[in-house]
Amino acid sequence: MNPIVAIIEGMTKFLWGDLLRIPLPGGSSIGLSLMVLLLIPAGIFYTIRTRILPLRLFPEMISVLLEKQEGRDAADPTSGRLSGMQALIVSTATRVGMGNLVGVVAAISAGGAGAVFWMWVTAIIGASTAFVEATLAQLYKKKDPLYGGYWGGPAYYIHDFFLKRRIREGARSEAEIEAQTEFRGKRNLVSILFAISALICWGGISQVIGNSVSSAFENAFQISPLYSTVVLVAIAAVIVLRKHATAKVLDLIVPFMAGIYFAMTVFVIVRNIGLLPSVFGRIFSEAFGFRQIVAGGFGAVLMNGVKRGLFSNEAGSGSAPCAAAAADANHPVKMGLFQAAGVFIDTLVICSCTAFLMLLAPQNKLANLSGMDLLQTAMQYHFGRFGVFFIALVLWLFSFSTFLGILFYAHSNIAYLFGANWGSQFGYKIFALVMLFVGGLAQYSVVWDLGDVGIGLMTIFNLIVMYPLSKDAITALKDYERGMKRRRRP
To answer: What parts of the sequence cross the membrane (predicted)?
Structure first.
């Protein structure tokens, strides 16, 4: 085996494989990967620190989503400034992808219907993590001289954290610390490692997207991968090589694709309303069921739900903050609430749609199937041949929007590494388009592993600084809640 391939596979196993196993009654066990050991405690910690924000401030979250975007919260296409809603749409574009379709199917296939419950639980604590990292992105964002508006994310708040710590050792006052914290071009090692990991990850994901789209179109329409890939890359190039096109296109694609997928699921639920109690019964009984514990399957139920929730909502990885920083919100906490809502949209809505489409189909029709075949069979049961075509088109939209979203994320990380210049921005876009094309023609497992390594390293570097910086997000949250109380006074 090639030494480089061996290193990548070894790192993938270390980051995402079972680092330790905890035995359970009945011969079962829970395998815990390094990512689970990092992200679940982080989510619990931030849920406690924010006083269960996802549930406590859920009405405020909905209010922020529905309020009219005006003033600093409104988008300005001519300046590149994003509204809070646009930043949410960009981050939702990257969260919602193939994992919401085939990934959920795989989780239920391996862990049973009970995995859905643990996926929901993971979304609640993941929303707290997403809130903190998005609020920090707003607090530490920088002016974007190329595209207009702002850029930021973990590379920038990691940079400021270590810079402030160094300055504080010799500074005489907080004012002096703030005066010396302006980004001066000297890079921080941890920020560099985060940005490099992110760009590697998104390059790998580009290849995965190309392969997913070409495979789905070949299965559903018998279209040659070469033709579907050329069209995909050509459309992507037209959008990403234009200055402000990405956010505008995602404004159209994301609400449409999420809305139509949700509407189709509601139609299926209404048509099978009599089966709904039994589906919920399966989800909850298999999540805690005595049968699963005795049969040794509880670990699979729990961890497949947890892992799918973590993989899907990306909370803690540091991806979504790159979009959160771009918004010109009138309070940092608003973007935290937007991104917490994004986790709910991804996991509680889109992933649940896939779960119900699968669980409302007769189990004997899905026996011995897996992956896209299983999902297409479930859709064919609900909608006939149209269902197979529909799921291929949905996968195309989900995957395409993910590609656009990760290139938007890349802006700020490229700028951190190479400075504000068009050459480096253009170069990475061409690299991502090449990866998209290569992936459409052939599947390279090492590139998939490279993407997993990238997101794993991003998570580690991000969490290193999120813990000490979380006090800034909590301070901002307290200030926002004081404002809420003032607004409610008669």
So the answer is: 30-48, 87-111, 189-209, 221-241, 253-276, 288-306, 343-363, 383-409, 453-470
The dihedrals phi and psi of 33, each to the nearest 5 degrees, come to -85, 165
Count of residues making up the chain? 490
Res 27 pLDDT > 70? no
Domain limits for position 351: 15-58+82-484
Tell me 96's DSSP state. S
389 domain-assigned? yes
Three-point CA angle 133, 136, 142, nearest 5°: 125
CA pseudo-torsion sign 254, 260, 263, 269: negative
- Is residue 111 helix, strand or coil? helix
pLDDT at 250 over 50: yes
* Strand positions, DSSP E, 262-376: none
Q: Report pLDDT digits (tens) over 285-340.
A: 877 765 555 444 555 555 566 665 566 677 888 888 988 888 888 889 999 999 99
Rounded Cα gap, residues 327 and 148, in angstroms: 11
**Dihedral sign (CA 323, 45, 455, 371):** negative
Residue 4 in domain: no
Global pTM reads 0.88
Element (H, E) at 150: strand 150-151
Q: Kindly write down the DSSP assignment for every residue of 123-137, as one continuous string.
A: HHHHHHHHHHHHHHH
Determine, yes or no, domain membership for 111.
yes
| Longest CA span, the chain | 72
Neighbouring residues of 326: CB distance < 8 A, sequence distance ≥ 6: 81, 82, 87, 90, 141, 144, 149, 150, 151, 152, 408, 412
CA dihedral 161, 167, 170, 172 (to 10 degrees): -90
Domains identified in the chain, total number: 1
